Amino acid sequence: MTRIACYTSFNYGYLSRARILAKTLKRLHPDWDLWAMIVDRTPADLPADALTGFDHILDAHELGVPNFPGWMFKHDVVEACTAVKGHMMVHLLTPPDGSPGYDKVVYLDPDIGVFNPLDGIIKRLDHGSIVLTPHQTEPNTTELAIGDNEMTSLQYGIFNLGFVAVRNDRNGHGFAEWWAGMLYRACYDEVERGIFTDQKYCDLVPALFDRVEVERDPGYNVASWNLSRRKLRFGPDGMLWSSGSPLKFYHFTKIGRVGDFMTQRYALDNVEVYELVNWYKRELVLQTVPEADQHRWVYGYFSDGTPIPKPARVLYRRRADLVRAFPNPFDASQGGYLAWLRAETDIMGSPAEAHAA
Amino acid sequence: MRLWVTRDALPWRFADDDCNTMDTTLLHRDPDATARLPRAPRDDGPPVLYARFPLEPQTLPPRAADIRVVAGDDPKFAVVAAAVDPAYYCARYSDIADANVDPARHYYDAGWKERRNPNAWFDTRWYLEAYTDIQDAGVNPLYHFVVAGRREGRLPLRPGGHRRPVVDQAVNPLLRDPWPVAPRNAQFLEAEDLCLRVRKVLPGARGLVLAASHDRYVDVTGGMQVLIADEQRLFATNHVIYLHISPALARLTLGVEDPEPAVLQVVLDGVFVGLIEGPALAQALAELAPDLPDARLFTLHSFFGHRASDLMAAALALQARQHVFWLHDYASICDSYNLLRNNVEYCRGPAPDSLACQVCVHGDTRPGYLARMQALFTTLPFHVLSPSRAALDIWLSRSSLPYLSARVHENALLEPSAPAAPVGRPLLGTAEDPVRVAFAGFPTPQKGWPQFMELVLRCRDVSAYRFFHFASGEAMRPMDNLVGVPTRVTPGNRMAMVNALAEHKIDLLVVLSPWPETFSYVAYEGFCSGADIVTLADTGNVADAVRRHRRGVVLANEAALYDFFLDGSALTYAGGRAEQGREPGRLRLTGTTATVDLGLVGRTTPAAMQTLDPGLSLLVGEQTLYPRRSGDMWTFMLDGAAGHVRLMSRRVLPEQDGGARARMGVAVTGLMLDGVKVPPGDRRRIAGWRNVREEVQWTDGDAVIDAGTARRLDVTLRLGRRYLRLAMAES
Fold it and tell me: What is the DSSP string of B509-549?
């Protein structure tokens, strides 16, 4: 029997989203092993059932990433939660304890909801090694849509890395190792340097690896970035269709003011989209765990509680001498990087100005 | 053909040259115009024309393009003023109407900064929040939209059209607190008080009807209330006592079971007598039962606000001989009683585990709701009565509830009347004789008001039509180019709507309900007035009635509706009607339950109590599970830890079986746990299994199965035999 693992990566601020992913995925694929990659420290008062739905939970520091504190410090929360995805994929394909890896591994972002079985993807992995979903699978025609979609994809990546699936073969493994290596090197939101977290690198995947499958079924990875060319409709039997194909998963990206605006800009009168987004918002309320919601991201603060501003991270990742001098830059017990920042830079500003990033 | 359209169909897409009129100023405004705009009309007031300018009834509103002009010194104001709808503005903002100021001037100077909307098609707040560059620039947003924004692809309203606010505001009715509806200081009745009152009217009575609906029909005006009043009067003429109950706390779904007793309003023979708690009502009926005539009927018009346990207890205590369930809506299929997913789109009642139900605000609670419905229908053997074939067909295809019989019993019949002679209307479709198009009733999304508004907006520069709204005064929604006609149907003036529509010579009544109406009294009022109906395909009995009586047009969808008016088809149709002459028709009310032959007098015979449904249920610990049925297969969903379960069938009539067996045996041809067959003789068929014969094994109606950790149990029965039902069943 084929062993399939699905994993997602998040900090506790995203727990409510991850719980929706777990709930919707497990309903359709109860036989898959669902892994939670937690990039955070577990709140002491977290209820025991907070991670119900996940079969396995792994903390990022357990991945065996070299120089973990220094590496983690280089990333803000979005960068950090994506930076671990490659290492986690390697972990599931070739577990460090020598046990057999999973036959097929699927990554899904925590802000995804699954609505129909993902069997098509699993079947693709019978002959392919890597499956990717592009942001857009149909050209746009209006200036507004081209600017928001095609041009944005050129900057941020052709494929959306809220989803990727691999088979445990030479190709799949080769991809996972390469991806983990690139993310160890630099998983940053630095579009001006041609890098966007874990995503932009994957533009290279069809060139670097064999048997890459580009999934263009309009039922996968529906989101604001492709609503200009996709329409959601319910059938008389209650099935939800995306441009003629059953909706497999929807990516509820940036739920809130910005995401809502982009959604309605392209959903227009496709009221089913609003029904789906409203459902997600209701579920978010239901799945909220207050202890997690109020939890501070552990990697957002120095050990003395001082918030880490983004420029402190950027400076650290650009200067190898700082990395050598402060292997654990979070540690402020002996002064450390925080003391150096205060003495040598204006980055920390006055205490009132400091904020975590 | 777009003979009558002077601008693009969409209201915000002006002809291009409209944008370049800043130097010629469009409008000359009557300074007294707003002062003479109508305020909230009285019900008995005259027809009111809501228009851009104050007009006498029967005259045509001038169109902006026809107005010639005094050049103003502020071209920006001219652009804005042309797009402000004074009637809308005054109606929506009473302080503007009270202040007697020019709405356009107010919007231009202050209204947009106060985030007021200038008309029905531009949302000031949305535009500024969506396009922060406009907000930052401090530009009047309506001016910006007209001269630039529309060409840049900016939207004047939040996307999603009229459906969006409905979707955004949709909530499960259980999340809304119930609201009190009983009269203040109403008398509280104990069981013996009610017994006394009933005993007073008992001498000479031939029977008793216990009726339930959602409100106190004697004090509320509405379609169902009128029908119930008729029903009560008809029963009274046959000397049948009519005891009506409705909840004192109203809600738009089945009431929630609670240890605290529910309070009911009691109306006896058309007179409100007080309040009683649910258990006290059952107690009173149980005490009365031995002394009541045999003819006892329980008729359920609506269970909104009621608790299923109260209804069952009352009907059982009464020892009703017949039970009637009315399909006035689809609440027995889903607590979205009109089968509107998220209150917006007809969903066709899909399976509760469908994605549509998952996404719908009614979906989460639907399985539990259906379980309570199953308990109600399993306990009380209902004759299901439907006001229309359309509603019955939907119910039969979408509901798996057990029933004794199901039939159509129309609320009213349309009978032919003398046809009127053809009327020559040579100027039909011109400003002198526009086609008269109306919407009747409350302006709600569930009745298709937003679609009607959209129609009026799209036709705002089409002189071929005149639009009317007939409703009670407080229900009026003034807007440009809409004639409001205050009309209130009351028990004393049942024909008020028919007469008003006829008096205003309405040609076409639009009925645009987004769900399949079970009857639609308003459509029949339209027929009787002489109007024809324009409706949509999914309007249930409205579309059926139009086809049946050949009195109107059924259009495929909303887009086809707008095309029908904008491409001139409506005018062609109206012209054809005028040449043929009108056939108004007469409405004959049928008296609902009072005119159904259910063999009310005398005891029910076993033959009349037969059903193909053995009423399977599964006892898991203390919990009773009800199945989903598909053909001859009954499916139970388990929690994975059920262990030993009991497969129960319906109880048999004791007198039919001498009390030897409590339940009806069923022939099981297939048993599967998690899709894997459990063959006859398998050790998991623990007890209550008999006569292995080929693949069929009989149960004695109470068979034990070891379900272990299974999550699904499928039972296939050999059908073909009929099962007896028991009116007093304990399920």
Answer: EEE--SS-BS--HHHHHHHHHT-EEEEETT-BHHHHHHHHH
Give the rounded percent of residues in chain B with a pLDDT score beyond 70.
83
Most confident of A40-54, B14-28, B225-239, B399-413: A40-54
Asked whether residue A294 is assigned to any structural domain, the reply reads no
Rank B18-22, B226-230, B597-601 by mean pLDDT and report only the highest.
B226-230
Residue B309 pLDDT more than 60? yes
Gyration radius from chain B CA atoms: 30
Residue B58 resides in a domain? no
The verdict on residue A295 lying in a domain is: no
Q: From CA B662, how far away is CA B659, in angstroms rounded?
A: 6
What number is the average pLDDT over the span B685-709?
81
Percent of chain B with pLDDT over 90: 54
Residues A307 and A278 grouped into a single domain: no
Strands annotated E in B195-236: 207-212
Gap between the Cα atoms of B627 and B332, Å rounded: 16
Give me the helices (H) in B557-693, please.
558-566, 569-580, 654-657
Q: Is B188 exposed, middle or buried (0-12, 13-18, 19+ CB in 10 A)?
A: exposed
Residues of A in contact with B640 (CB under 8 A): none
**Count of domains forming chain B:** 4
Q: Report CA-CA distances (Å) from B315 to B5, B207, B227, B245, B576.
A: 60, 14, 21, 12, 54
Residues B454 and B574 grouped into a single domain = yes
CA distance A198 to A184: 10
A165 falls within a domain: yes
Residue A260 near residue A128 (C-beta atoms within 8 A): no
What pLDDT digit, counting tens, does each position of B393-434 carry? 999 999 989 988 888 888 888 887 777 777 788 899 988 999
Positive or negative, the CA dihedral A336, A337, A339, A340 is positive
**ipTM exceeding cut-off 0.90 for this assembly:** yes
Determine which of A271, A280, A285 to mutate to test the interface with B (most B C-beta atoms within 10 Å).
A271
Lowest-confidence range among A67-81, A316-330, B582-596?
A: B582-596
Write the CA distances from A183 to A197, A200, B620, integer angstroms.
8, 11, 53
User: What string of DSSP letters covers B684-723?
Assistant: TEEEEEEEEETTEEEEEEEEEEE-TT-SEEEEEE--SS-E
Is A236 in Cβ contact with B348 (below 8 Å)?
yes
For CA atoms B83, B89, B91, B92, give the dihedral sign: positive
Q: Which among A264, A276, A278 is the nearest to B159, CB-wise?
A: A264
Quick one: which H or E segment has residue B355? helix B355-359
* Nearest beta carbon to residue A271 from set B163, B360, B361: B163
> Are B354 and A142 a contacting pair at CB < 8 A?
no
Extract the tokens encoding B338: 């009109």
Question: Given a cut of 50, is residue B375 above it in pLDDT?
Answer: yes
Min Cα–Cα distance to chain B from A240, Å: 6
Helices (H) then strands (E): counts for chain B: 23, 34
Give the pLDDT confidence of B53-111 residue by residue, as tens digits.
222 222 333 333 333 333 356 889 999 999 998 878 887 788 888 888 899 999 999 99
Identify all chain A residues contacting B341, using CB atoms and an 8 Å cutoff: 234, 275
> Which residues span the domain enclosing A83?
4-286
Q: How many domains does chain A have?
A: 2
A278 vs B158, B167, B358: nearest CB: B167
Which residues of B are less than 8 Å from A274 in CB distance?
160, 164, 167-168
Q: Which residues of B touch A142 (CB under 8 A)?
A: 153
Q: Which of B162, B358, B394, B674 to mutate to test the interface with A (most CBs of A within 10 A)?
A: B358
Q: What is the pLDDT of residue B722?
A: 56
Angstroms from B457 CA to nearest CA on chain A: 17
In this prediction, residue B499 has a pLDDT band, given cuts at 50, 70 and 90, of very high
